[in-house]
Predict the structure.
Amino acid sequence: MKRRWGLVLLTTMLFIFLTACSNNTDEGTGDGRNNVEKLAKITLFQSKVEIAESLENLASKYKKETGNEVEVWGSAGDSYITQLQTKLAANEGPTIFSVQQGVEAEKFASYFYDMTNESYAKYIVPNMELEIDSKIVGVPIGIEGFGLVYNKNLYDPSTVKDTKSLIQALEKFNADGINGLGLSQTAYFLIGHIINAPFALQEDPVAFIKKVNKGEVDLKEIPEFQEFSELMAAIRAYTVNPLEVTYDRQMGDLATGKTAIVHQGNWSYSMLADYEDINIGMAPVPIVGNDKLEVGIPAGWVINNKASQEQITAANAFLEWLYTSETGKNTILNDFGFVPAVTTIEPIGLDPLSQQVYEAAQSGNTIPRALNYFPQGIIINDLTPLASEFFLNPSMTPEQFLDKLRDVWVKAAN
């Protein structure tokens, strides 16, 4: 009898042990992450080439920590919107993608999942969410700002308070054999960002853009545009032709003292960080005496509501991890180099350009990101060819440039 009970007890214990081992094998990921929920694979698509490598690294870390997979599609740069639209229309869209506020967000609004009740939506800094019809549909990637990024060893912005004095500085740099103000050939770096200033300085930028769309404004009569076109003519006359300058060259020349100023944003510090003793700052574009940096949300992460429920669940889990895990927070702050727009991330250790943007945002000493309300695709399809023509044709006057700007604008908007 004792032997029989001993055999029963031994058999029972062996069964429990084998069942436990089986459960561990089923629930685990095969590399030590037991009891982690296995979620659907998701895809992520975005346009910022500056963070492409960091995003790939983030996806690898996410898989290592959670066992779940995020496939990052290659950054598309200037062709991003066209590719995104094609993928979504073919029902092959990414699970998570980025969109800008304004016209771009309105264009894709039918694809946005309502994030209002998701836990990570509570972390968004007030007034920084992407919102449509009082619903939170996007979490901000970060806060960005742009203006005149300058080499402090060559340029002192306290001596330049208006367009006239900036043009005089460019003349002097040219005489000294230094490239005064470097633009570059990429659409947004050529004209998309710098043209934000004359629009943003209007009393109501969105209302003003709507009037321009309808052809109701003669840009030659607007002081901000008069000075903007004069500055563009000075860049053409006294600096290296932007059409010959890549982004890499633009930033490398700034770091090595070949260029005094570039028109760029705080994201560009990633191109400068490896240079020793780099000493840079950011100043406003001083047309009509402007003393404010452009600061806003470059884009928001949205979830594709056409994805499967399993993918949407996985996307929500990824965004929660992104904004709460030490890995995610560190990536946003240090690898992406973004000024954080969520309360879970302390803005410490910011690079010099991001620190200036953060301080400007905190003080409210900013002008808005008016370019988000430009007609869809106008920067790449219309303004870039116009700017290229202007920089290649020294006989085109600032007034003719503004007339052509008005004409291409109305055509693009209608």
About this structure: The chain has a mean pLDDT of 90. Residues 2-27 form the longest helix (26 residues).
